[in-house]
Amino acid sequence: MATRAKVARGRIILAALGGAALAGVSGHLLRRYRHDLDDARARLTAVDRQVIPTEFGALEYAERGDGEPVLVSHGIFHGCDGALLSVRDLVADRHVIAPSRFGYLGSPVPIGATPADQADAFVSLLDRLGIGRIDVLSISAGTTSALQLALRHPDRVRHLVIMSGNLPGTPMAAAPPRWARQLYRDPVMWALKVFNRPMLARLMGVPNGFPHGAEQAEFVSEMLDSIFPVGPRANGIVFDAFVSNPEVNSCHLEALGVPTLLIHARDDPMIPFAAAQQAAERIPGSVLVRMESGGHLGLGQTERVRAELAAFFAEPQRGLLIT
Fold first, then answer.
1. Fewer CB within 10 Å, N- or C-terminus of the chain?
2. DSSP per-residue letters across 181-233
3. DSSP 131-165
4. CB neighbour class for 35 (10 Å; exposed up to 12, middle 13-18, buried from 19)
5. DSSP string for residues in 51-81
6. Which residue, 117, 124, 84, is CA-closest to 102?
7. How far apart are CA 187 and CA 242, in angstroms?
8. Cα separation of 228 and 78, whole Å?
9. Residue 235: enclosing H or E segment and its boundaries?
């Protein structure tokens, strides 16, 4: 097993670093790398980001839209900017509040931080914004913090949505090997995007055979671009991979007392659908929506997900249902 792990590690690093080495010797590729990173920094600068003090240090967040508020707990490799992108077409009629979780962009990782601390920091943000109860939408690695928010502060959560969630007992809920930290760098991730785009898409949860059509391809490209620049997100990626994701296994799902909706695709290459089924069985009164396809990003499922979210937010009294 150790030999296989080394071989797999070597293949990934060679695929990425091999491209990075080429970029180092080619003036054209080096200029392209710098141009792409400049574009990424410009996209990030264009996001109106605010920072508030909390007992855990600075907490960054961004807002968009009007209407009833919804708090978005973003996935790995993202931040407040990626959160806004991920739900752009799903809750267009809502006031989206998107914090950058610990280690992402303008939110540093406190010493000894835990997902429970992140949940308490969310509450500090809600207090600052004068919001009592709020709908919460978690995405992938943002699930652990959202679960802790619902467990620790059920009086602040109206509804909890778990989309493509990092759930107990899955591969993502186990810490990766320490060498994986070598991947969380701009040159490496950029090299993957340029020289092995299918691998990077797979790491983002795009199933084989996708995207279908120009619209899906454009969204996948936006999602791949949205992880850059990686540098300001690296500490958060490490925190998620080695702390937050594994700690979901300790979440007492049976104690959740807020209306909960899980949305998961059967072909998600990152988190098996069976994990969502098992989580739904453990969460009292939860609702599980099964997508037949679309993978981790829900490609091609925007209209259905939008409708499911609207119906769930409007109807708090729903029993266990698997569709």
1. N
2. GGGSSHHHHHHHHHH-HHHHHHHTTPPTT---HHHHHHHHHHHHHTT-S-GGG
3. --SEEEEEEGGGHHHHHHHHHH-GGGEEEEEEES-
4. exposed
5. EEEETTEEEEEEEE--SSEEEEE--TT--HH
6. 117
7. 22
8. 8
9. helix 234-239
